[in-house]
Protein: Enoyl-CoA hydratase/isomerase family protein
Organism: Paraburkholderia bengalensis
Amino acid sequence: MSTESVAIRRKGALLDIVLDRPENGNLIDQPMSDAIIAAVTAIDDDTKLVRIGSSSKDFCKGRQSPMPPQGAKPSAETLRRVVAAPPLALYDALKAVRVPVLSVVRGEAIGVGCALAGVCDVALAADNAIFQIPEMERDIPPTLVMSALIGRVPVKTVAHMVLSRARLSAQEALVAGLVSRVVPIASLDDETDALTDTLLGCSAVTLRAVKQFLHLAPDMSPAGSSGFAAHLAATALSARF
């Protein structure tokens, strides 16, 4: 399921998602979100990697939120359903993908864009990337974005970004634990292809095992984590025989 604003293509074992709304900085709207959710929840056993990037100079400058019109007095339940639930569904769908998810960030990643970068398992950033969570400038608590980052980014990083509204450079985001690696913008495409090829060189069962461990082990006891590690390793190895 693609829309005019997001291109979703299957290339062998790669599911490639490209945000393609350059006229407004790739603001995420509901059809884009629905298309991404449909694509990542329908991957088959042969898919090894999901990759999210953009076609233009910015990754994603936020969300086209369906806020009620001026003067309206919607109930809290209406706001939860219309405003809060859709981005949470997108974040939850990306977290639940059975294989690694790679984000490729250039330019601005603001609000929802920052959340999309952070919710992915690996984030490759160009050296011109900028990350910001600015919602409190409008006195809005960005708990939706925070829900995507908590558990994946250090709590003090999230607190600093939210409360200060600071714009982090790519290098600052790397130090803060928001991205995995920073590369020169001129070599971003080559670095992305190289990392993609490295990941696709592994079997789907091995990649799924790694994703499961990354997703579940942090909440386990040490003994439970060790047992889960042994189970996943044995399951992946048994597939070779």
